[in-house]
């Protein structure tokens, strides 16, 4: 694994043998950090020529409502046409994080459908299942 970004709340790796990006989220990201992290993911999707992202949110506390709206209405409409296409997301361990994540995923799905974005996101609790699904995507 090649480390691309190393922040307290976010790490981004490129996994060459599976040709995907792996993001690891920890704690509660500050707004500017959350947005910069997603911009780093998009930059890496383009540079590494991969459309697959494994998002490990097990230790995360998710972002603010404003950042979730930004993700769904600003980032994704820009990112999906540039190759950000397949996302395997692992829910946080804690219940509050799970509820927040469910709301965020619902907002993303609604925006994806509204704008007909080429984005496919699956939610998992098991890392092996998430990776197996992600590796099958082209």
Task: Explain the overall architecture.
This protein is α/β, with parallel strands linked by helices and 138 residues long. The chain has one domain: SpoIIaa-like domains (Rossmann fold, 3-Layer(aba) Sandwich), CATH 3.40.50.10600. Helices cover 46% and strands 28% of the residues. It has a 6-stranded mixed β-sheet with strand order 1-2-3-4-5-6, sandwiched between helices. α2 runs parallel beside α3. The longest helix has 21 residues. The mean pLDDT is 90.
Write out key terms for the chains shown.
6 strands; Rossmann fold; 138 residues; alpha/beta; 46% helix
Q: Please tell me how large the radius of gyration is.
A: 13 Å
Tally of DSSP helical segments: 4
User: What form results from the Cα inertia axes?
Assistant: globular
Q: Percent range for helical residues?
A: 40-55%
CATH class: Alpha Beta
Using DSSP, what is the number of strands?
6
Estimate the mean pLDDT confidence. Answer: 90
